[in-house]
């Protein structure tokens, strides 16, 4: 029976983690290991300066291991401590509150970071996210059922079943699944490429009570892009996006062009 490791970056108590586990339930033996607290935006960071611990939690019958670290730590502890080094057949990261689209999020998302970590061991991986209408929701603690994961959970089941049956094509390490807020079970699934940007980055300067400046990194959403990109598919076409990702970030150019520079 396949073994499936489920993790996330919203924390072990997040409703999206339960939805992800529900989505792949019945496809294999589940092990759920996730950060003990909210860890959005930490990318593929790993804890190297402090020890890690894990403990099993039981949330109304939903059992999961809480790891005192990042999403990547959760994957490492899940595989090499909890599963005793036996590699799972599939890793699912999510279901994240907040779409993870464009190169902006691929390099910063803890959800995708966990999937990339699993992929580095040769494990087929899926990162799953739902669109957040309020961008502030991306960083809240998602204990309740404020967001509906029903459609995303069912789509995740379909995708995971196919990956377990067929594996991923050569050159693909992670499937990045994003579901718009308006999606139904009949919404079309489109295979997309990454848009360049999703945010117009800006910085807000504010002042504390002593008059000293501090800063918030901010930015408006870029909601339109070229056809075939994940940004256009989610925001304008309102379709489900699956973007195949690979670990090898080497530029696809004739390397002699770089050699000439040096």
Overall description:
This protein has one domain: Stationary-phase Survival Protein Sure Homolog, Chain: A (3-Layer(aba) Sandwich), CATH 3.40.1210.10. The chain is 24% helix and 27% strand. The strands form 2 sheets. The chain has a 9-stranded mixed beta sheet, sandwiched between helices. A two-stranded antiparallel sheet has the order 9-10. It is globular, with a radius of gyration of 19 Å.
Q: Tell me the span between the first and last alpha carbons.
A: 53 Å
Helix proportion range: 10-25%
Biggest sheet strand line-up: 3-4-2-1-5-6-7-11-8
Please state the second-level CATH architecture: 3-Layer(aba) Sandwich
Mean pLDDT: 93
Low-confidence stretches: none
The CATH homologous superfamily is called Survival protein SurE-like phosphatase/nucleotidase
Q: How many strands appear in the DSSP assignment?
A: 11
CATH fold-level label: Stationary-phase Survival Protein Sure Homolog, Chain: A
What Rg do the Cα atoms give? Answer: 19 Å
Under CATH at level 1, the class stands as Alpha Beta
Number of helices: 7
* Order of helix and strand elements from N to C terminus: EHEEEHEHHEHEEEEHEH
Q: What is the overall shape?
A: globular
Largest sheet: 9 strands, mixed
Which structural class should the secondary elements be placed in? alpha/beta
Return the domain count.
Answer: 1
Strand content: 25-35%
């Amino acid at each position: 029976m396949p073994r499936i490791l489920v993790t996330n970056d919203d924390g072990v108590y997040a409703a999206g983690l339960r939805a992800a586990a529900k989505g792949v339930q019945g496809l294999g033996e589940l092990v759920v290991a996730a950060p003990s607290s909210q860890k959005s935006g930490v990318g593929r960071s790993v804890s190297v300066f402090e020890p890690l611990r894990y403990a099993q939690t039981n949330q109304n019958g939903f059992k999961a291991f809480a790891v005192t670290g990042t999403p990547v730590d959760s994957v490492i502890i899940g595989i090499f401590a909890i599963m005793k080094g036996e590699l799972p057949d599939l890793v699912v990261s999510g279901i994240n509150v907040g779409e993870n689209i464009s190169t902006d999020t691929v390099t910063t998302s803890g959800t995708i970071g966990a999937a990339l970590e699993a992929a580095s061991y040769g494990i087929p991986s899926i990162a799953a996210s739902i669109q957040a209408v309020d961008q502030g929701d991306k960083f809240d603690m998602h204990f309740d059922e404020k967001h509906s994961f029903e459609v995303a959970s069912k789509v995740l089941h379909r995708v995971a079943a196919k990956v377990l049956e067929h594996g991923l094509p050569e050159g693909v390490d992670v499937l990045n699944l994003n579901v718009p807020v308006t999606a139904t079970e009949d919404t079309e699934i489109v295979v997309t490429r990454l848009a360049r940007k999703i945010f117009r980055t800006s910085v807000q300067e504010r002042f504390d009570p002593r008059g000293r400046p501090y800063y918030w990194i901010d930015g408006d959403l870029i909601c339109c892009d070229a056809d075939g990109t994940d940004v256009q598919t989610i925001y304008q076409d309102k379709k489900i996006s699956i973007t195949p990702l690979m670990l090898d970030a080497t530029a696809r150019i004739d390397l002699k062009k770089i050699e000439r520079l040096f």
